[in-house]
Amino acid sequence: MHALDGIKVLDLGTFIAGPFCATVLGEFGAEIIKIERPGVGDHLRRFGTETECGDTLVWLSEARNKRSVTLDLTDPRGQQILRELIADADIVIENFRPGVMERFGFGFDEIHAINPRTIMLRVSAYGQSGPNRDLPGFARVAHAFSGLAYLAGEPDGPPVTPGSTSLADYMTGLYGVIGVLTALQARERTGHGQVVDLALYETIFRALDELAPAFQQFGFVRERMGADTVNVTPHSHYQAADGGWVAIACSHDDMFVRLAKAMGDPDLASPDLFGPKAARLKARDEVNSLVSGWVGSLSRDEVIKRCVDAEVPAGPLYSIADIFDDPQYLHRGTITTAESRIGPLAVPDVIPALSDTPGEIRWLGRELGSDTDSVLQELLARTPSEIATLRADGVI
Length: 396
Prior knowledge:
Blueprint: E1 8-11, H1 17-27, E2 31-36, H2 57-62, E3 66-70, H3 76-86, E4 91-94, H4 100-104, H5 108-114, E5 119-124, H6 139-146, H7 148-151, H8 167-190, E6 195-199, H9 200-205, H10 211-218, E7 235-239, E8 245-249, H11 253-262, H12 277-282, H13 284-295, H14 300-309, E9 314-316, H15 320-325, H16 327-332, E10 335-338, E11 345-348, H17 372-380, H18 384-392
Helix pairs in contact: 1-8
GO molecular function: transferase activity
InterPro entries: CoA-transferase_III_domain (IPR050483), CoA-Trfase_fam_III (IPR003673), CoA-Trfase_III_dom3_sf (IPR044855), CoA-Trfase_III_dom_1_sf (IPR023606)
Protein name: CoA transferase
């Protein structure tokens, strides 16, 4: 049993944001029918590291648990097939530019007329309204427009990519999950579906803690701080004697008392030195220098051990090679191996872990159109001869 057994989702999106929402829903049991253009498919099939099966590693991992159906939505017969699929769908996901679905004849009003219970997730760069609604955009643009990229980098350097160029896509996909699950809950009371409208930039902006109220109240414009954190210190990355890096998170005064003891200099946390947070912030460079000197005199593992013994949050900065060897990752199964069209493939496992209805990877990304015949026969009662005609005409 899965938590979302019986929920049917049509994934009309491309690349990552909308489709990632479908991926998560599929991990927990929803039936995902991925609609792709005949002969072309989702651009995600060619985004990332190419493999011998013709699709990328990104596709194999992120198209997990989806049935691939090809459909030409510019052909009236393709549109009719989509209408029949919508008639039995709980959720329709799209992430075209605003107006594209309407041009196909599948805006929310049309979908609502076909099936009043269907929920429509609409993902775009800037949302379905506003002066920027028609502009194209990807995650990198969302990071810039949201204010995140401005904060990423060293104080005297240019703005940089904040870790992953796809962060906004994945966060928007997760907010999409929140939106459609909330809409499903509302449908239990109202009996009808609704639109979930998401902009890539909004999901990133929502995660920037006090950035907005600090500017509104005090006119404070946060600048790039490298690995530091604006409101607390020491709260950064420090290099150990063996070249390894350690992340130390010292977020309040009591924690700094413990860190000072771990450093062998408890007087650092006295009221007349750096005990109060305000004093540490005022002397940020000096405090960081003291911590850097201490960390730089020990190995990475020794620093972490002393911090852990003192109950100071600290951990190693990992590369993916480090991650593959870490016992915590191994114990939790955070990376799992699933069969794919290129053989066993290591991919991120399903999260979160549910005790009674856990998620599952049933298969990885399928070949383009591999489920078209079965979906048309099982769900829409098309005969083999009808399917053959549709294929010959390029509709599927």
